[in-house]
Write a structure and sequence with these properties.
Layout (H helix, E strand, L loop, with lengths): L20 H9 L1 H4 L21 H10 L12 H11 L19 E5 L5 E9 L3 E6 L4 E7 L2 E5 L1 E3 L13 E2 L12 E8 L11 E3 L2 E6 L2 E6 L5 E6 L16 E3 L2 E5 L4 E6 L5 E6 L14 E3 L2 E5 L10 E6 L5 E6 L29 E3 L4 E5 L21 E6 L5 E6 L15 E7 L2 E9 L4 E6 L5 E6 L7 E4 L5 E3 L10 E3 L13 E3 L4 E8 L3 E5 L13 E5 L6 E8 L5 E6 L10 E4 L3 E5 L4 E6 L5 E6 L9 E5 L2 E8 L2 E7 L2
Parallel strand pairs: 7-38
Antiparallel strand pairs: 1-2, 2-3, 3-4, 4-5, 6-42, 8-44, 9-10, 10-11, 11-12, 13-14, 14-15, 15-16, 17-18, 18-19, 19-20, 21-22, 22-23, 23-24, 25-26, 26-27, 27-28, 29-30, 31-34, 32-33, 33-36, 34-35, 36-37, 38-39, 39-40, 40-41, 42-43, 43-44
Helix pairs in contact: 1-4, 3-4
């Protein structure tokens, strides 16, 4: 959003006297930065696609006042502003071979491969020693130069989902990068997402192509070079609530699926970025939005929504991958008279919250989707929802084909602290206390680590993992928390631990089968003061029922913990730079490493057995994203989004 608006396709051959006053003003004031066609230069971004979301008054304000840190202000009369605005609205994107927005002109090439075969198609990217060709069947071929010829490369180990695989364990079996050589790890390439900071996406790689997202944006990259292949983009919608990020896509065959800020799910051709279908999940005017990476299961794509703070009625929904038609929907807030409605005592069942904005996991053998849900709305004031408030702050076990509820477990009944349970449910088959079990592991925002039997939802273990948990003294044998009665928001304010940020949050944990350890980022010594107040739900506004403040003078710590899943005890802790503001997740490897975003802004690796710090790279950003791994052209890569930059690491040669 650094500058302004603009778009262009100038009439070819127009004479000087045919140029409008608006065009002359644009060429005199704007073209030096944004280009004569509005497609951007090294001085400024493309602006041909910026006007649609702004009215004339907003455009006038930007033209006259500029933008902080970017576009300068201009002294313009009202007539000049009107002429320039009229011209800006005529600008058009250049023709492109696929996707939205500007791309290179269509150039066809015939490439000779090292095996003597010919490859003919449209050139979509090229560098000094690489090419990317889209052949007439729509597929992209990634090529590397060998003398005067080229060889085709691809990835042999993909990262096809937000979590890496359906289980959510953020674990890679690749072993090229080890404890002995990790110090030789270095940045191979960097791709900067334009006008972006604090991205929360996990890149995904399938067949050598990496997919990176921002709000209403998907970018396809050559995973070996970081070179852009195509970009799909829509102008973000003004006024949407709670949809200021995007965490990734789902991929199935030749299609990928992305959620938009206005709670739509869109299917794209993954080789071209061209739209196939667009389905509305919910009406964004009723405070809905969407930020999560969908999950592709069988012939379905499953997604969730935001809006817990805004009083939406949450749901998980599945759509046919071929047509976009809705197949099933599970509402996280029941209607009056439906099962679970008896846990709501008051009017707030009508705007109960229960968002579903983080990606669930899937067990193919049980054909079960495990999807976590968020907090109830009017979150700091529970007076109009007396009861447990199902199905907020839950883990839902849903039949993948029908969406029917198999079981649920509620982590924080009657939540008044914004303790979303939207932390990743990790599926593990392991011996638990001497017995082989199908487990689901969950470190919750409320400060407790849980182990459940994923076949039936039975609680096997619940133990606090931070020093100070005040809202509950323990989790009872029946699975319900033993709440401390003095821990509830008041008009004057109540100190509660952990804080609203949680003892952990949405950033990804990981698990190594050989160690039996669960690796996750935690906040310690971080508490909140909760104050409640009454209010009514209104479309377009948050529905909080009060306010939260951080406790003055506290000194929070960020700690990477390795927890034994059989006992809930931390085997080791790695204390990070003090501050408690980092939001980076983890990935673990079969070679015994844990990579994580350190509090100071470093991307680091620790010994998975001891917690000893082995390597770091200073990214100088406050992490918001979790890392991933893939194999490209015989080399193991790690990639993570650092602010607005995608950085891919591999071993030096």
């Amino acid at each position: 959003m650094k500058i302004l608006l603009l778009v262009v396709v100038l009439a070819v051959g127009a004479s000087a006297q045919d140029r409008s006053a608006g065009q002359r003003a644009f060429e005199a004031r704007c073209a030096i930065c944004h280009g004569g066609d509005g497609h951007g230069t090294d001085r400024g971004p493309a602006i041909y696609n910026k006007t649609a979301a702004r009215d004339n008054a907003s455009i006038a304000t930007v033209l006259k006042n500029g933008l902080p840190g970017g576009m300068p202000s201009f002294v313009l009369t009202d007539a000049e502003v009107a002429d320039l605005t009229t011209y800006l609205r005529t600008l058009q994107p250049a023709p492109s071979p696929g996707g939205r927005g500007f791309q290179r002109p269509v150039v066809r090439e015939t490439i000779t491969l090292t095996d003597g075969k010919k490859l003919e198609g449209v050139l979509v990217a090229n560098g000094l020693e690489d090419r990317a060709i889209r052949t007439d069947d729509g597929k992209i071929h990634l090529l590397r130069q060998v003398g005067e010829q080229y060889r085709e490369v691809t990835s042999t180990v993909d990262w096809p989902t937000f979590h890496g695989d359906m289980s959510g364990n953020r674990y890679t079996t690749m072993t090229q990068i080890t404890k002995d050589n990790v110090t030789h790890l270095g940045a191979k390439w960097i791709y900067s997402v334009r006008n972006a900071q604090g991205l929360q996406d996990t890149p995904q790689v399938v067949g050598g192509i990496m997919y990176v997202t921002n709000v209403d944006t998907c970018i396809a990259l050559d995973a070996g070079s970081g070179r852009q292949l195509w970009q799909w983009m829509r102008q973000p919608t003004r006024g949407v609530m709670g949809a200021s990020s995007n965490r990734g896509v789902a991929i199935a065959g030749d299609r990928l699926f992305i959620e938009t800020d206005i709670a739509h799910i869109v299917a794209l051709n993954r080789f071209t970025g061209e739209e196939i279908w667009d389905t509305e999940m919910a009406d964004w005017h009723q405070n809905y939005g969407a930020t999560g990476a969908p999950l592709a299961v069988g012939n379905l794509v499953i997604g969730g929504i935001t809006g817990g703070e805004a009083g939406t009625r949450g749901f998980v929904a599945a759509f046919d991958q071929e047509t976009g038609k809705e197949v099933w929907r599970f509402w996280t807030i029941p209607k009056a008279g439906e099962p679970g409605s008896e846990t709501w005592g008051g009017k707030d069942i009508a705007h109960g919250g229960g968002p579903t904005w983080i990606t669930g996991t899937y067990d193919a053998q049980l054909d079960t989707v495990y999807w976590p849900t968020g907090n109830p709305a009017k979150e700091y004031d529970g007076d109009d929802r007396k009861g447990d408030d199902l199905y907020t702050d839950c883990l839902l076990a849903l039949d993948a084909k029908t969406g029917k509820l198999k079981w649920y477990y509620q982590f924080t009944p009657h939540d008044t602290f914004d303790y979303d349970a939207t932390e990743i449910p990790v599926l593990v088959d392991a011996n638990f206390q001497g017995q082989p079990r199908k487990l689901v592991l969950h470190a919750d925002r409320n400060g407790f680590f849980y182990v459940l039997d994923r076949t039936n939802g039975k609680l096997l273990l619940a133990k606090p993992f931070i020093k100070e948990v005040t809202w509950a003294s323990a989790i009872g044998a029946d699975g319900h928390p033993i709440k401390n009665p003095n821990q509830t928001p008041t008009a004057e304010g109540t100190r509660v631990c952990p804080s609203q940020d949680g003892a952990t949050n949405f950033y990804s944990p990981s698990y190594i089968p050989a160690t039996g350890l669960f690796y996750f980022q935690t906040f310690d010594a971080k508490c909140s003061i909760y104050s409640k107040s009454d209010e009514d739900w209104t479309a377009g506004k948050n529905y909080l029922g009060g306010v939260m403040r951080m406790v003055p003078g506290q000194k929070p710590e960020h700690i990477l913990r390795a927890t034994d899943i059989s006992t809930g005890e931390a085997k080791w802790e790695l204390r990070e730079t003090q501050g408690g503001n980092g939001w980076g997740g983890t990935i673990s490897t079969a070679s015994g490493l844990v990579f994580f975003g350190e509090e100071s802004g470093e991307f680091a690796a620790a010994d998975a057995t001891t917690g000893k710090l082995l390597w770091s790279f200073n990214g100088n950003q406050n992490w918001k994203a979790s890392p991933m791994a893939y194999m490209f052209d015989g080399q193991e890569y790690l990639a993570v989004i650092d602010g607005g930059n995608v950085i891919a690491f591999t071993l030096g040669k």
